[in-house]
Structure formats: structure tokens, C-alpha cells
Write a structure and sequence with these properties.
125 residues
Length: 125
């Protein structure tokens, strides 16, 4: 019985899950950025401790939303949406950002004019 609760056949969902995860992810990145910047600019530790706890809290909340869906995230690296075929996969990155495939493109072709400071005949050859 406990395995059916921890590992349901279909992951559980709740209303506004996507919006909540987006907000938590943004706050988590914010807290991590403040921590990194604080260390780079040698801020005193007492100023950074609240940001550390904020980053830990938002990370734990993100993990909790995943664990609510299914504990199977602890056992594998592939999401169940990819296994069920709900998200298209890109064969070279494994992501669903297939529109960013620049392997066969020439992004700079025809974008530069033949006149300007760096063209032939300029002093910068």
C-alpha cells in the first residue's frame, strides 16, 4: 500500500502547480544569485545567512512539489512525461528546445555589409 502512495502509476498534480514551481524556481535563482554576489564582493556572513536559508527553503519547496507528484524522481533521471512521450525530445540535447537547433544553420550569413570600419579597404585588415 505504501508503494502505491509513493510511486503512483500517474504522477499526482494540483491546481497551479506549474505557476508555483515557476515562482519557486525564480526565487531560488534570486537567492542563489545574491549568495554568489555576496561571496564575490566579500560581504559579511551575517548578511548572507538569511539568503542561504531562503535558498535552502525554496529548494526544499521545489523538491517537495516533485515528491508530491511521485517519489520516483529519487530513483531515475528521466521524467515520466518524457517516458510517456508527452514532451518531444531533441536527439542531441535530450531537451524539448528543438527550435534552438543551430547545427545546420549559418546564423551570420548575409548579416554583415561590405562597407564599414572592418570591411576590406579599411585600416583594420
Amino acid at each position: 500500500m505504501i508503494t502505491q502512495y509513493l510511486f503512483p502509476a500517474e504522477p499526482r498534480d494540483f491546481p497551479q502547480r506549474r505557476n508555483l514551481r515557476t515562482l519557486l524556481r525564480a526565487l531560488h535563482i534570486l537567492a542563489g544569485g545574491v549568495l554568489l554576489g555576496g561571496h564575490i564582493f566579500h560581504q559579511p556572513d551575517p548578511l548572507l545567512i538569511p539568503w542561504l536559508w531562503f535558498a535552502v527553503g525554496t529548494g526544499a519547496a521545489l523538491m517537495a512539489t516533485d515528491l508530491y507528484a511521485s517519489f520516483s524522481i529519487l530513483l531515475n533521471q528521466t521524467s515520466s512525461a518524457h517516458r510517456r512521450g508527452h514532451l518531444p525530445r531533441n536527439d542531441y540535447t535530450g531537451s524539448h528546445y528543438h527550435h534552438l537547433d543551430w547545427r545546420n544553420k549559418q546564423p551570420y550569413a548575409g548579416q554583415f555589409s561590405s562597407s564599414g570600419p572592418f570591411s576590406q579597404g579599411s585600416i583594420c585588415k
